[in-house]
Amino acid sequence: MKYTQHNDSFATINVQHLFNDWCKSQLLPLDVESLVGFFNYITQDDLADWLGEPSLAEIDNDHISGYGHEWYYRTPRGVNIGIGFRWGFARIRGDGYVNTDDVIDFVNWILEQDNG
């Protein structure tokens, strides 16, 4: 799949629930390392190694809101999706057009970059 990196986070929201709900519907335990567990161990440094420089560098220098680096991409379907950190934990972000398939494909794509 082809993802194009950009730096437009406008109108994106936390869509992590789409991923979590999908995992529950598949009856996956919440500690499956290759999927749900990924969000427990991934770091900003890991993503920088796999994906390169973030689209948006840490925007909260005083650490009041907890936002860290964020990577945003245009999906093959043309929607805006990304992964960012808040309080040190990764979470998926997307625009109002992101669906569950987009999220699952994006997470799998990120995991492929680790092996790539």
Distance between the termini: 13 Å
Q: What kind of assembly state do the chains in view correspond to?
A: single chain
Helical coverage, percent range: 25-40%
Low-confidence stretches: none
Q: Strand-and-helix sequence, N→C?
A: EEHHHEEEH
Overall number of domains: 1
Average predicted confidence as pLDDT: 86
- The rounded Rg comes to 13 Å
Outline type = globular
DSSP E strands, number: 5
Key features?
single chain; 116 residues; alpha+beta; five-stranded antiparallel β-sheet; 4 helices; 5 strands; globular
How would you describe this structure to a colleague?
There is one protein chain. With 116 residues, the chain is α+β, with helices and mostly antiparallel strands. It has one domain (4-115). The protein has helices at residues 16-25, 38-41, 44-51, 100-115; strands spanning 4-6, 13-14, 67-74, 80-86, 89-94. A five-stranded antiparallel sheet has the order 1-3-4-5-2. A hairpin with a 5-residue loop joins strand 3 (67-74) and strand 4. It is globular. The chain starts with a strand and ends with a helix. The mean pLDDT is 86.
